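Re: [ENG-882] Designed sequences occasionally contain unexpected residues at chain ends

Forwarding the minimal case from QA. Structure tokens:
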């Protein structure tokens, strides 16, 4: 964060602090609101706009706030002030032994929650501006858990040769070529594959247990290349288990019990990103026959070089950008905003980004 930005934020906090002092927190417009009632009202208000998984996450984070209020004897949020919120931040950091990035994430939820409480006359309407988020250095808010495009290409080459058109092949291929989230991948039905385009249709269907993260805003068609379509065609003809899920739908990617789950998708990426599987050797000089991560599918995640499904998404977004796909098109295809791409997903280093921009600059 720049010095100028920090100064503006500090000045804003001082203005809000003065406003809160001038307008007592016992404002006659405020109506009594318990922490538990406030939490339930807030979560209910999210139901129209947020996915169930997001609401569950907010619920989990706010339980800590309700617990803190109980410990402090706060049974009416009308009396809450900026000092209380700062005390909660420090308490939560110590209570959960949290890193700065996690504290920032949790306090961002508190800020949104307090803003909502202000709208329903539970706290002073400007109190949310008193929630001070920890300042992060450039790059500190990004996960570095990623996988190089060359490694993915090697894995897919291995799958092409030894695991062609298997379920695992389809999972890894679609994660890489489309960059979809695991929830989106598992949501696909057989009828969502349009073989003539070819393309996949992503649809928000929460009533039958396949919501999209951004609900109806995440619905879209995702184009496939001829190679991906060929693998999918062969998978459907020869390898897909012809089963239905508990809602009577026909999933595109199946297990013997029905629709593939997120855990199974993650286990697949952990399994095939172990170097010993594809390259046949271990960069850590371990004997595969004595390595639990190598010998046991369930322990594949213990390999230092194995990754879950999300790094495939990060790598796919970066790969699209590096191959001159405009950011707005990547944003639409991957269902992620340009700002979030910049902050969390574009894994290219600064020199790589410079070279990517250079081509456009030199063409002017």
């Amino acid at each position: 964060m720049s010095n100028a930005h920090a100064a503006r934020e500090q000045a804003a906090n001082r203005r809000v602090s003065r406003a809160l002092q001038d307008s007592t927190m016992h404002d006659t417009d405020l109506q009594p609101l318990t922490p538990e009632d406030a939490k339930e009202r807030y979560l209910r208000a999210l139901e129209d706009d947020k996915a169930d998984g997001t609401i569950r996450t907010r619920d989990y984070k706010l339980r800590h706030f309700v617990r803190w209020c109980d410990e402090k004897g706060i049974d009416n949020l009308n009396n809450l002030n900026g000092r209380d919120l700062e005390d909660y931040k420090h308490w939560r950091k110590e209570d959960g032994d949290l890193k700065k990035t996690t504290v920032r994430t949790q306090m961002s939820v508190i800020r949104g929650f307090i803003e909502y409480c202000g709208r329903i006359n539970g706290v002073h309407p400007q109190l949310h501006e008193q929630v001070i988020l920890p300042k992060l250095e450039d790059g500190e808010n990004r996960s570095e858990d990623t996988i190089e495009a060359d490694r993915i290409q090697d894995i897919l080459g291995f799958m092409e040769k030894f695991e062609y058109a298997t379920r695992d092949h389809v999972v890894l291929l679609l994660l890489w070529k489309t960059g979809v989230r695991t929830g989106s991948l598992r949501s696909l039905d057989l009828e969502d594959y349009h073989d003539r385009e070819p393309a996949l249709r992503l649809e928000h269907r929460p009533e039958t247990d396949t919501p999209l993260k951004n609900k109806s805003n995440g619905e879209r068609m995702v184009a496939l290349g001829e190679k991906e379509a060929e693998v999918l065609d062969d998978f459907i003809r020869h390898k897909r288990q012809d089963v239905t899920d508990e809602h009577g739908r026909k999933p595109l990617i199946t297990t013997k019990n029905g629709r593939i789950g997120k855990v199974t998708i993650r286990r697949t990426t952990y399994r095939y990103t172990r170097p010993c599987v594809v390259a046949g050797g271990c960069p850590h000089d371990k004997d595969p026959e004595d390595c639990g991560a190598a010998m046991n599918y369930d322990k594949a995640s213990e390999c230092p070089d194995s990754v879950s499904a999300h790094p495939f998404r990060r790598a796919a977004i970066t790969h699209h950008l590096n191959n001159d796909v405009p950011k707005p098109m990547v944003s639409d295809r991957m269902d992620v905003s340009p700002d979030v791409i910049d902050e969390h997903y574009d894994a290219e280093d600064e020199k790589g980004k410079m070279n990517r921009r250079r081509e456009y600059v030199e063409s002017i």
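QA comment: On inspection the terminal residues look reasonable. The chain has 16 helices and five strands. Proposing we downgrade this to a documentation issue.
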